[in-house]
Task: structure prediction
Amino acid sequence: MNKNSIAKPNHSRSPTLKVNLLRNSRIESIHHAHAVVCDSKGRILLFAGDAKFETFIRSSLKPFQALPFVSSGTAEMINCGEKGIAISCGSHSGTITHAREAFKLLWSSEIDIDFLKCPIPEGKNSPLEHNCSGKHSAFLATCKKMGWPLGDYLKGEHPIQSEINRRVSEFLGISADALIAARDDCGAPTLLLKLSQMALLYAHLGESQNADLEQITRSMLSHPELIAGSGRFDTELMLRAHGQVISKGGAEGIQCMSRVGEGMGLAIKVEDGSKRAKHAVAIHILKQLEWLTPTGLEELEEDILLKGPGLQLEVEGQLKFQENQTTGK
Result:
């Protein structure tokens, strides 16, 4: 056999985490999940499944999409405070409180609500009730301050999207031209990334070494109710973590977290996109990492995980240590 044809071991791949839905102790459905923990240097520390699994980061990108809003001085200029920054990072529940915070960004910037391009949710009356309205309002406020066009702020070549890509690429240590974008459900671009790259971004988010990210982190932790909403995973986790964990989920089974002050980021992807499975995996990993107190984890499990007579979610597997640490890039 030619030595060049011998397969080399993949040190970034191991068995996936398996989530079983049990009904009266019988397995009814099975989900598979990949997960990885990286440090801020991009080194893979722990993983399950494929650490370099490629998928779209979806709404877990929002803290990084808020970077131009902060770094341009827009947030300071309109005096939106931490609440304004928090709502720009949120995938909120569309309550009156959430819609009001998003509207304040437009009002303070003297921007008409008609410029908002996020959809009006079914059964609702305003795009402000869309879960991404804070992000879109921050986009528009930044464009107004910078003198950029308001009408096409969602196009990939628009200056605000280019600036987001530039900042993300800097944190990943790659060229912005290497980033692949696609339209998210709200109309804004999202990025195709390796799971290890998502974990690397969140390691930077929690490290507090970058002034703009530190301000975003502080705002999210100070107002977790604006990141998701009462009874939802990100909000309930951050409330119980007492300033120690940042959490931001995305659609199709994406969940990202960071341990504040330690430069460690966690990214999870459930292959079939299941929300129930990603929450079960997240809690399972939080137990292994000991990022929350046992009491906090018990309360989170009780409030978030599937409820119903005879129903149970069970996670099999653990994160394994990376034997030969490799970059998450």
